[in-house]
Amino acid sequence: GVDPKRVCVDTRNIPEHAGCFRYDDGREEWRCLLGFKKENNTCVEDNSPNCNTNNGGCDTTADCQNAERNEENSQKIICTCKEPTPNAYYDGVFC
């Protein structure tokens, strides 16, 4: 689950397939979930996510790994959040 104080208050402009994060200072930011990429103000499917592009969609402080996905033989991204913010939100899109 997401820490309640990290849940965004203003959810009007969050597109589908995005996660929103509230910072300690009250700022709110949405980012596309893993497997999606930002296009204008929407999140569209990303068929070839890669750690070399935008850290794979992971938080800038997270480690990004390209993992093979056997079912569809397509790339999947694994984000690993590190200290001092080891808690992953939305699979590591935010740390």
UniProtKB/TrEMBL annotation:
<keyword id="KW-0477">Merozoite</keyword>
<dbReference type="Pfam" id="PF12946">
    <property type="entry name" value="EGF_MSP1_1"/>
</dbReference>
<protein>
    <submittedName>
        <fullName>Merozoite surface protein-1</fullName>
    </submittedName>
</protein>
<feature type="domain" description="Merozoite surface protein EGF">
    <location>
        <begin position="8"/>
        <end position="44"/>
    </location>
</feature>
<dbReference type="InterPro" id="IPR024730">
    <property type="entry name" value="MSP1_EGF_1"/>
</dbReference>
